[in-house]
Amino acid sequence: MTVADKLEIAARPGIAALGRFRIGTSATLMAIVVVLFAFLSMTSAVFPTPENLSNLLRQTSINGIIALGMLMVIITAGIDLSVGAVVAIAGIVNALMLQAGVSMWLSIPLTILIGASIGVFNGILVHEVSITPFIATLGTLTIVRGLVMIMSGARMVANLPKEFGQIASGSVFGIPSMFIIWMVLFAVTVFLLNYTQLGRNFFIIGSSREVARLSGIRLRPNIYAVYGLSSAYAALAGILLSSRLSMGVPTAGISYELDAIAAVVIGGGSLFGAAGSAIGAVLGAIIMQTIRNGGNLLGIDPFALQVIIGALILIAVGIDQIRVRKAEKG
Amino acid sequence: MAELIAASGISKAFPGVRALDQVDFVLKPGEVHALVGENGAGKSTLIKILMGVYRRDSGSFTVKGRDIHDFSPQAAQASGMAAVYQDISLARTLTVGENFFLGHMPTGRWGTIDWTAAYDRCGALLRELGLDDIDPRAPLSSLSVAKQEMVAIAKPVFENADILVFDEPTALLAAEETELLFSIIRRLKAEGKGIIYISHRMEEIFAICDSVTVLKDGRHVRTMPVADTNPDDLVRLMVGRSMEDMYTIKRARPGEVALKVDGLTREPRFRDISFDVRHGEIFGLFGLVGSGRTEIMRAIFGADAFDRGEIHLDGKPVRFTHPSQAIAAGIGFMSEDRKNQSIALPLSVRTNINLAHYPAISPFGVIDRTAERDAARTYVDRLAIKTPSDAVAIRNLSGGNQQKVVLGKNLAAKSRILVCDEPTIGVDVGAKSEIYKIFEKLTEGGVAILMVSSYLPEIMGLADRILVIYEGRPMAIVDRSDFDEEKLVRLASGLQA
Lengths: 330, 497
Prior knowledge:
The complex is a heterodimer.
Chain A: H1 3-6, H2 15-18, H3 20-43, H4 50-75, H5 83-99, H6 104-127, H7 133-152, H8 162-169, E1 171-172, E2 175-176, H9 177-195, H10 197-207, H11 209-214, H12 219-245, H13 256-266, H14 278-297, H15 302-329
Antiparallel strand pairs in A: 1-2
Helix pairs in contact in A: 3-14, 4-9, 4-10, 4-12, 4-13, 4-14, 5-6, 5-7, 5-12, 6-7, 6-12, 8-12, 9-10, 10-12, 13-14, 13-15, 14-15
Chain B: E1 5-14, E2 17-27, E3 32-36, H1 43-50, E4 58-63, E5 66-68, H2 73-78, E6 81-84, H3 96-101, H4 115-128, H5 145-158, E7 163-167, H6 175-190, E8 194-198, H7 202-208, E9 211-216, E10 219-225, H8 231-239, E11 257-266, E12 270-278, E13 282-286, H9 293-301, E14 308-313, E15 316-318, H10 323-328, E16 331-334, H11 338-342, H12 349-353, H13 358-361, H14 369-382, H15 399-412, E17 417-421, H16 429-444, E18 448-452, H17 456-462, E19 465-470, E20 473-479, H18 485-492
Parallel strand pairs in B: 3-8, 3-9, 6-7, 7-8, 13-18, 13-19, 16-17, 17-18
Antiparallel strand pairs in B: 1-2, 1-4, 4-5, 9-10, 11-12, 11-14, 14-15, 19-20
């Protein structure tokens, strides 16, 4: 074994994606997905049917989109607990606009903009007021949940135009359009993280704020951007969820933030920052949803499923911890 | 009278450095023993071995006559040893009393904490030591830094330790508190306890210490009664032999003034700092730890604000409010705290070399990845950075190679003025001389270097001129032809040359 083999390849995609270590993580996750699909196809007659698979992809897309935004925040060593609440407010706001006769081609961009501004509010709390991201976004979560109830009167907003519902139910060449939207965002995220200064800044900030500042990176725009992006992604997920349900549901998205964090962490992200990849987050989301879907089909007690998914998260984080400790010992 | 500590032939090596070489040290009861030497002489390594933080490579020592083999900080504490370090290592959010009892709070009948007893006993000792104005119930963080230091000093007294180490205890203290510290030390001495006193301040050593041990380059130079020496002799013993060839570099012919600093002031850290650095010149800033060196550098770079004063770059007035402006104006910065300020540890060598370079190679925010890779390869080659590939995380590199990456980062950003704070800290000898050679090449090319170093041979070997500062105030600017180790140490200790 040469020295190079023992060295850890940097936790940065792009370069790192070519390196031994990252390929290791993604390949492992990919193998888990293949094994899961093979196992479920053999044990359940329903699992491999096109209906179930496209249903699985639609279900995964929502969490998968949120996870991509969460990934960027986690790379900066932050966290965004408000995404689930943003899912709900986006669904309600958009539905209210549609009910009022606003075209969905206007209401959707407006809703995403409102989502992004909630993220910028998080950014202000984190950067200007120096509230730790966990607490800042917890406060925002609570405020936004309250606003959703006030705006909707705690009632669902139904009777939405048919073409809005067709976004979620539609498909192109048999591929669900929700999945296509997710993959477009995946490509956008890969581009942001690997090919732009903004993405590089996220990694550097996640590594050390002081190093970033002394290297000439202005923290403010980058922090605003990352929380803004996370909330914008969540708002889009909220719109897709309400399209799927054909109504705005005030209680939508509860605990979605936890699913997103889990997907990122399973995919190799680290809450210490500066680690994680978009492909990892995507695979993490697919693994979680596949276990849920497959478990239901196999008639596994949903409570037992919860135990399995929880254990999965702990195993993933445990491996992450051991990795960090090894790296620190150098 | 039995010795409290008797160490002989202690050696300790770190990769590339022989930190201690056959050092002997004896501490007797009722003795205040000064440990002096330049930075890097091995004082703190010796203390850390005695306190069980480091393990010695060879040699032996006894504590109160007992042979010590496996020592740990806990075992040292159990043997009645206590050290008060420069940085206060107490729990800042707890009260003074809780800090005194850390982990050993007195308990009442039901096993519950007896708060009244705890605070009474703490308050009694504070009064005894003349620290009446410290409330045992006050959270430590509510006290001034000097008072916190006094609490740190009182704690081992409270614990009844009989071997005490004070490492630069007066760095944060005002005159009256220093007097209080001395009275505490006299009391401990009268009780037959042994005290190791580390300080750079000559007047304190001659005021309070009985004997003094001089270390230089990890070797024991001499131990003698303080009464048999004087400050001048002591300084001469500390700085010792002539410097080595390693620090001699080819000097460039300095050109126009690159950086001019005029009356730079930030109360209370530094005041009225004025100097200029010319293209092709290495300008040194010398002073003790806490003299304000780092703060001056950070202010110039725009990392911290300052109260007043002017900075000119190539004749034009500038005032940076963010490091990005300084970088854009061609200033590079190497921090003394490499791991927390200069490099992104988990990221690749390639990213680290480009840290300050991205704005230049990212039109519309999209990184030109070819330029990114080329910059990394260029500087890995040119600076002979030893790494299997530029995709390796920088945390896997040695200190010297990490520091070369920091140099590469500044060169990639086209720095014309390099501000370096302890450029060879944590760097082995080989990489050190490579870094000096790089400095030589840079000055040839007209780069101006402003350098802080607390290691005299280094700064004297490299700098063309040195500004000496003491407690944030300028003492003198010394020309290369007038460099003299004693003179510089005297100036840095607040004595006139």
